[in-house]
Design goal:
- Pfam families: fn3_6, Inhibitor_I9, PA, Peptidase_S8.
- With 759 residues, the chain is an alpha/beta fold.
- It contains 20 helices and 39 strands.
- The chain folds into four domains: 30-103, Peptidase S8 propeptide/proteinase inhibitor I9 (Alpha-Beta Plaits, 2-Layer Sandwich); 114-345 and 493-613, 3-Layer(aba) Sandwich (Rossmann fold); 347-486, Glucose Oxidase, domain 1 (3-Layer(bba) Sandwich); 617-621 and 661-756, Immunoglobulin-like, CATH 2.60.40.
- Helix content is 23%, strand content 26%.
- A hairpin with a 4-residue loop joins β29 and β30 (595-596).
- 55% of the residues are buried.
- The structure holds 2-acetamido-2-deoxy-beta-D-glucopyranose (7 copies).
- One 2-acetamido-2-deoxy-beta-D-glucopyranose (NAG) is lined by residues 671, 757-758.
Length: 759
């Protein structure tokens, strides 16, 4: 399948966003990352000296080497990035100490109510956890920076910065030491990789700060969702009014700005990861990713950086992307917690009152009051001279006749999912129109902020609207400002845009969390995506970029609850306690039609933070287990070296890849009957007995041995076997089921996905 345009960042920001490719590097030179793995140098200076010597071997002199180098990776691993000819890159790749040389590519940037919906409010309110509970946890956020004056980043009530933190507050344009505090404890920024691709940032004629200060809004939004302080009575022009706070309001933030105008260069991200690991963050959050298909783990900068983080005990939580289709999920390495997006039980209705007094339900973030009714015209009836009616129905530029739409509400259709919806309203406004009704069944739950009163309608409403327009000679309508509706059912539903698995070897994404219409802090300078380009301090946006920080916050809470837990144990706790049920006790469906979902939509299910705090059993693994998994999945020594940065030999007979102790079971080509092993670690006080139950995948009989696990004390590990006996071929499709361990209190669930190749 070919996707003309795919994207892995905030949907809302993507639509309507353009950037001219204006870089002017010398024709023959490309920005390469030269990666050398872990190092034994005593300090950064020594690494940089060695880097320059290495680079001088191809540029001719140390001075030329210094001029060519852009980034030095000198802390958590060794390497550099530089402008090189393919010839020079090739020569460097031949060096013994060089692991790999690859081009720096681009990545895209991929709450009042949501925490209540997740049940986390009750945890804090019931004094189960004090609000400053997470104050020892440091979360690194790689994004577009932060707006430090936002009330969400107030450090009121926070104790001193944890001693373990080794990061810095780097000053820059409009960002001083005073902009760091006990909440924003570190701030760094990286622009060289971006500038090499697009030219000096100044040349792009867009607002930016050469510092960690956020002019895009995205970074402030994600950081405040994770660890924003409690700010009462916030809203977006009255919509979604409530108390804003991060999921871990006591946690500290270390800000790594590597994204500019919604794009982030591999070389800059890798620098941020090198620093973050060294600075001592506990969790890293990346609401960004490459366009699908993602490169293999061995060639992908984020996968490589995340592997070093994992090896250093840091959980990396990352967004799966907003690419809608099967097989498009990114950031799928098993050492990354991959996050899909779903709705919460809140919607924003901007309804339409027709001249015949019928009310149609519409959706948008529309605070603008329309004072009276206006005439309705279909875009296809307002085509500019020489434009076919069908073309005009999409309301694209220069297709509508201003004489016909002046003073009217125009009815438009979305052509493809990636259409720029905001632009349609601008075009209507430019032509003198006063409102827009957009027929867009597939995006109706995403809160768009249009420049004129506009609303999105789906199937049922479309029929009523069309019937009215057909029968009424002078149809009129009025679009009402948005009302916030809560306790919506069913919820959650997987968002229509959320990228889907499968990925080749592991069943991704891993988990889903709130990512539709999330209110959080914003940069007052980022007005592009707000109604009438108004400056706002809090904004509502959608994307897996928004669900990822929800999961990051929950990981931060777990980390403070269980400081000794590995990143894999935290992942396991979040995944095995997830739910596949919505608030009507039905199975979670997928927007827009409530269609049946599978683990390829949401992995283990929808996050349940309260249960995750006390999962009962944990599936743990370490970086050696990851290597064994990659070995038995067929990774070559050269590939492994690309990842680890050092000579890595596979064990003689590593456990089978399906025995990798992941908290889910996936097999993409199961050949006949098979036995799979897993090991669980018990975390509880009293002796207990867990009993297995299984939801059989269609056509496969599943048995668990032993079927009961008796634990006497915490920390005890027991290995069990799961036998799969297929009775029929699944014909290239996956069949799904689950394994559940239950002791009457805890339910520990692992999804199963099998493609039965033969019986
Ligand atoms: C940034 O700093 C300059 C110089 O102090 C000042 O004129 C400008 O108003 C500042 N911009 C913002 C957005 O604070
Ligand atoms: C930025 O503005 C300058 C001067 O107005 C113009 O020459 C240049 O083309 C603009 N660049 C972009 C990328 O729009
Ligand atoms: C109308 O749309 C079609 C298909 O998108 C396109 O090929 C054609 O050029 C358009 N016609 C005009 C006059 O814009
Ligand atoms: C539409 O095109 C005209 C020129 O044909 C341009 O001036 C205007 O800015 C465009 N509008 C949008 C929203 O792109
Ligand atoms: C949902 O249903 C509508 C109306 O039947 C249809 O037009 C649309 O394509 C469907 N969308 C998806 C993603 O299945
Ligand atoms: C190692 O990484 C480089 C750079 O991405 C790539 O060209 C090479 O193919 C990789 N090697 C293997 C064995 O994957
Ligand atoms: C499945 O296993 C059988 C017996 O070992 C073998 O003949 C066959 O080629 C295998 N098929 C696949 C698809 O691996």
């Amino acid at each position: 399948m070919g996707f003309a345009q795919v994207f892995c960042f905030t949907l809302f920001l993507f639509i309507g966003y353009t950037l001219v490719h204006g870089g002017t590097p010398k024709v023959s030179e490309t920005h390469y990352i030269v990666y050398m793995g872990e190092h034994s140098h005593p300090n950064s200076e020594s690494v940089i000296r060695a880097n320059h010597e290495m680079l001088a071997s191809v540029t001719g002199s140390i001075n030329q080497a210094k001029a060519a180098a852009l980034h030095h990776y000198s802390k958590s691993f060794q390497g550099f990035s530089a402008m090189l000819t393919p010839e020079q890159a090739h020569q460097l790749a031949e060096h013994d100490s060089v692991v790999s040389v690859f081009e720096s590519k681009l990545n895209r940037l991929h709450t009042t109510r949501s925490w209540h919906f997740l049940g986390l409010d009750s945890v804090y309110n019931g004094n189960y956890l004090p609000l400053d509970f997470t104050s020892n946890v440091i979360v690194g956020v790689i994004d577009s920076g932060v707006w430090p004056e936002s009330k969400s980043f107030s450090d009121e009530g926070l104790g001193p910065v944890p001693k373990k933190f080794k990061g810095e507050c780097i000053t820059g344009e409009n960002f001083t030491q005073a902009n760091c505090n006990k909440k924003i404890i570190g701030a760094r920024f990286y622009s060289k990789g971006f500038a090499i691709d697009f030219g000096p940032l100044e040349s792009l004629n867009q607002t930016f700060f050469m510092s960690a200060r956020d002019s895009d809004g995205h970074g402030s939004h994600t950081a405040s969702t994770i660890a924003g302080s409690i700010v009462s009575d916030v809203s977006l022009s009255g919509m979604a009014r409530g108390t804003a706070r991060g999921g871990a309001p006591g946690a500290r933030l270390a800000i790594y700005k590597a994204c500019w105008f919604n794009l982030c260069a591999d070389a800059d991200i890798l620098s941020a990861m090198d620093d973050a690991i060294h600075d001592g963050v506990d969790v890293l959050s990346l609401s960004l990713g490459p366009d699908p298909p993602q490169p293999t783990y061995f060639q992908d900068a984020i996968s490589i950086g995340a592997f070093h983080a994992f090896r250093n005990g840091i959980l990396v939580s990352a967004s799966a992307g907003n690419s809608v289709f099967p097989g498009t999920a990114c950031n799928v390495a098993p050492w990354i917690l991959t996050v899909a997006a779903s709705t919460i039980d809140r919607e924003f209705d901007s309804n339409i009152y027709l001249g015949n007094s019928k009310v149609l339900k519409g959706f948008s973030l529309n605070p603008i009051k329309m004072e009276q009714s206006y005439g309705l015209i279909d875009g296809s009836d307002a085509a500019a001279p020489g434009i076919p009616a069908r073309n005009a129905s999409f309301c694209k530029n220069n297709t509508l006749d201003p004489a016909l739409i002046k003073g009217k509400i125009v009815v438009c259709i979305t052509e493809v999912f990636t259409d720029d919806r905001l632009e349609k309203a601008i075009i209507i406004q430019q032509g003198g129109g006063v409102g827009m009704i957009l027929i867009d069944h597939n995006a109706k739950d995403i809160g768009f902020q249009f420049v004129i009163p506009s609303t999105i309608i789906g199937q049922g409403a479309v029929q009523e609207l069309q019937a009215y327009m057909r029968t009424e000679k002078n149809p009129i309508a009025r679009i009402y400002p948005t009302i916030t509706v809560t306790d919506v059912k069913p919820a959650p539903e997987v968002a229509a845009f959320s990228s889907m698995g499968p990925n080749v070897i592991t069943p991704d994404p891993d988990i889903t969390g709130p990512g539709v219409n999330i209110l959080a802090a914003w940069s007052p300078l980022a007005t592009e995506d707000t109604v009438e380009h108004r400056s706002v301090d809090y904004n509502i946006i959608s994307g897996t970029s928004m669900s990822c920080p929800h999961i990051t916050a929950i990981a931060a809470i777990l980390k403070s609850f269980q400081p000794s837990w590995s990143p894999a144990a935290i992942m396991s706790a979040i995944m095995t306690t997830a739910t596949t049920m919505d608030n009507t006790h039905g199975l979670i469906g997928r927007d827009p039609n409530g269609t049946q979902t599978t683990p390829f939509d949401y992995g283990s299910g929808h996050v349940n933070p309260v249960a995750a705090l006390n999962p009962g059993l944990v599936y743990d693994f370490n970086s050696q287990d990851v290597l064994n998994f990659l070995c038995s999945a067929g990774a070559s020594p050269a590939q492994l070296k690309n990842l680890t940065g050092e000579q890595t030999v596979c064990q003689k007979s590593p456990p089978a890849s399906y025995d990798f102790n992941y908290p889910s079971i996936g097999m993409s080509n199961m050949n006949g009957s098979l036995s799979v092993y897993r090991t669980v670690t018990y975390y509880g006080k009293e002796p207990t007995v867990y009993v297995a139950s299984v939801e059989d995948p269609a056509g496969v009989e599943v048995t668990v041995t032993p079927a009961q696990l008796k634990f006497r004390k915490t920390g005890e590990k027991i290995t069990f076997r799961v036998d799969f006996i297929p009775s029929k071929n699944s014909n290239g499709n996956f069949v799904f089921g689950a394994l559940i361990w239950n002791n009457g209190i805890h339910s520990v669930r692992s999804p199963i996905g099998l493609n039965v190749v033969s019986v």
